[in-house]
């Protein structure tokens, strides 16, 4: 897909924290800059991997403002702004717009289960009308986590009602048939479909999707960029094989603490292991398993992070 606002490889970035669980803005901004220098076209911040719903309303504003103040460009950021509350979703989206972000990733209202398409349409209509345009809205389809999926009918209604505002979707369902159906139905209208799963990057690009927004891009983005640039051929195929292997390695242990463990060992900063409850850091045994799996996948060492632990 040409001219996609976030076309390419986007990391669902981990959020650095201090021992008291407050945001570590210096470390987070540094990580964002490293990602952009090592294969990422853009960054999905404050999503599932970034533990957005473990942060409060003011903290989420602080995190976005903090990394912008430290030199991370707003144009590459897609903050997650979806909350169970309509008011909070609107205000966080307005805030992202005011900071210069081009798009936001919006979960459906996820507390009440089984809402109708009419109810979801009404909720998103309120979001769009209250925000007032000026920023692209990307739908976050992650039914395993939210328990509130986006149907094709609902997406079609939203696109018809709000052309150019409802801009795309991140599909973290792992169901490639669903991603392909969204491409087939809506890509002709400029709707950008992003895979939340690394194993589909090459496939979704070939079928007319826009790219990926993935957790494992915290460690494998340079391989994703090869796939994005080359698309086909031996080099792209080899890079896709690494993406497949790193995704498998990342999910061999609990995903978010596992990725934190990898970055902690790669940087030598134990603070990366800090994670807000109810998540917990990995045990020593799990941490070693995660590290060895990522080594076997071919993602390590990570360029520019020193790799203090590489010889351990």
TrEMBL record:
InterPro entries: Aldolase_TIM, DapA-like. The keyword Glycoprotein does not apply. Keywords: Lyase. GO terms for molecular function: 4-hydroxy-tetrahydrodipicolinate synthase activity. The keyword Lyase applies. Pyruvate binds at residues 49, 213. The active site is at 140 (proton donor/acceptor), 170 (schiff-base intermediate with substrate). Belongs to the DapA family. PANTHER family: BLR3884 PROTEIN (PTHR12128:SF67), DIHYDRODIPICOLINATE SYNTHASE (PTHR12128). This is Dihydrodipicolinate synthase family protein.
